[in-house]
Amino acid sequence: MIPEAYYLALSAVLFTIGVVGVVIRRNPLVIFMSIELALNAANLALVAFGQRHGSPEGQVLVFFVMAVAAAEVAVGLAIIVAIFRLRQRLSVDDLSLMRW
Amino acid sequence: MSPIPAPPVVLGPLLPSLIVVGTAIVVLLLDLLPPRASKAHLGTVALAGLVGALLATLRTWGSGGRAFHDMIVLDDYALFFHIVICYAAALIVLLSMDYLRRAGAESGEGYGLILFSTAGMMVLASANDLIVVFLAIELMSLSLYVLAGLFKRRREAGEASMKYFLLGVFASAFLLYGIALVYGATGTTNFDRIVVAVGAGPRDRLFLIGLGMLMVGFGFKISSVPFHMWAPDVYQGAPTSVTALIATGSKAAVFAALIRLLVAGLRTIQPDSTALLWALAALTMTVGNVVAIAQSNLKRMLAYSSIAHVGYMLVGLVAGGAPGAGAVLFYLLAYTFTTVGTFGVIALCERAGQEAVEVRDYAGLGRRHPLLALTLGLFLLSLIGIPPLAGFVGKFYLFGSAVRAGYVWLAVIAVLNSAVAAYYYLRVIVYMYMQEPEAASASLAPSFAGGLALAIALIGIVLLGVMPAPFADLAQAAVAPLIR
Amino acid sequence: MTEYGTMLMVFAFAAVVAGALLGLPRLLAPRRLTPVKAEPFECGKDPLGIAEGRFAIKFATVAIFFIIIDIELLFVWPWAMLYRRLGWFGFIEMMVFMAILMVGFLYIWRKGGLEWE
Prior knowledge:
The structure holds 3 protein chains of 3 kinds.
Chain A: H1 4-24, H2 28-53, H3 57-87
Helix pairs in contact in A: 1-2, 2-3
Chain B: H1 15-32, H2 40-60, E1 65-67, E2 72-74, H3 76-103, H4 108-125, H5 130-148, H6 155-186, H7 191-200, H8 205-222, H9 230-237, H10 240-265, H11 270-293, H12 298-319, H13 321-349, H14 365-368, H15 370-384, H16 390-404, H17 408-434, H18 448-466, H19 469-479
Antiparallel strand pairs in B: 1-2
Helix pairs in contact in B: 1-2, 1-4, 2-3, 2-4, 3-4, 3-10, 3-13, 3-18, 3-19, 4-5, 4-10, 5-6, 5-10, 6-8, 6-9, 7-10, 9-10, 9-12, 10-12, 10-13, 11-12, 11-17, 12-13, 12-16, 12-17, 13-15, 13-16, 13-18, 13-19, 15-17, 16-17, 16-18
Chain C: H1 2-28, H2 35-38, H3 58-71, H4 73-81, H5 83-110
Helix pairs in contact in C: 4-5
């Protein structure tokens, strides 16, 4: 039996990698992959906590999160496709028509 | 292998949101049928669905219920927000019937997505469980990300959509991790049982970290400083009627969940969160107002102004308890009326190939179109908080609740901020009435739908300003179920 | 350790099956190489070009539809595992879910999302 703390440590590390990825990467696709990593870190934490409490809520929530993440991927890809059709290249640095 | 007993299916408390979802599906299916050239009838169907949901909501007032193991609670509190949200969405559909057609972007998916996001907002208002909060926020946000990019040919639209999407999903990740930690610390995601778990045990560090991450997620969604960066770009780039929905409906819904969590779910740890909310409120309104002064684009200016208004509403959350929450509810009602109207006038002034979104585009509007200028002027005066309009009464209740709860300094900061805000709102009015137009422009003749939307919003702010008592009582009655 | 033992058995079984499928043709089948056969397999895409070349944007559109229809399995799988115990209630629930999903599919289809050109 792997101790619960290991799962939580791994989950925290994955979440941190995801957040750092969002901050330092420039390609929207890679940023998006980092966000997905953070979501999956949360999933891991949910499953581990579900084990601790012996209740199914954590695992049920993971199912919903996976479905929502798939919907997010679909919407994200659709937006990227729409932008790409308009300007033929892709980087967050290009998204600077509007500045305060 | 014993059979699993079927759970009771109680759909009553979901009825208003189910009507909206059903209408959305009907709109999508009708979109596939002829006539293909005109989509005007879809707007009418969407409007009928929202009015139906509004009627269903009004009928259930005072006799709500619970469903799905207390995950959904339809109390008067949820019904109050249902009314605000349905009302805002109906006006926005009316505006879209005028605005999207002129922009050549009227489409079935546009109306369908407005309805889907409205349904998400309504479920969010009656969510009593963190799982439902997450699902409802996602339903609302995913529809709004697409709506922000509805004008596929405009480069700003893609940019707004992309920024909204990336930052919104990032915020959702924080929200979800916060939910996971709160679940880990308390063993439940239900608000009622979280109260019990937190009240019983000692302060848990895991729980506080989770709560902090939840606040980051909520902060992004209501665009409070320092999580506000997305708001100006999205407000500017999105179609104006969609901007109105993002500014009113989505904010009201997220506030609904936030208040339910803070006031009902976490009342035992109120002292801990108050200091944090105090700082957030002061920072949000000051940054919003100061940066708004520097804006020349009207939609961008209103984005910063809406950030400032979020700061005012956070003042009510600092005051806390029933008076504070009731004041926030009343303010949300007034703010929704006013903001939908303001963006409505902007939408009507936009013409194909000529986006009247710079403040100087409004020069001489008072002479060119006195009625429209008067309407915009009244909405702006309500945003400043000039009596006898809705904004004044809202601010009065909010700041009054803060003073009574002993947060005098916060109330002083809020009043000073309101004075600063008057400057940039009045500048628009000065442009409308005291400047000559730069060039002769086409006459503005709002269609019936657009005019109707503005008229309803205008009646709303005057009514709320002249006789606020019944509505304030309604708001207080709505928060009563939270404080048992 | 028993749960890991089961997983190890699955891995071992997979290795044996995959190895057999790769190894048996090498022993049994005749080897006649044609230029088409020698090409690396690329899912219908022309394999020649620079390594960092771009995919046609159309692949992304298909991927979007695939994800949406694919993730439904997440909910169908547990339902299928408990199909008999859930009884009629589970059946009707799943049919409602499927019906809503089919509305989406109909929408994609009629809107021309499945056309390649």
